[in-house]
Write a structure and sequence with these properties.
Length: 68
Amino acid sequence: MAGKIKKLIDSLIEQRSQGNASIATTTRTKLLLKGIDVKKYTEQSDDDPAVINTIIQVANEMGLNLKV
């Protein structure tokens, strides 16, 4: 299923920022520091299990629960 990474990233940013642009930016930066460039992923991107696990790990560190 292509696009799962994009959906997880969008969900993480939405849950974390709750509409606050500053928090959305810092969340994107946190993902970039973990090796995930959010601009690289689209709905057509192949799903990489390692990237999905990293996104879930970041969400857990932030106290968020993402649906896989």
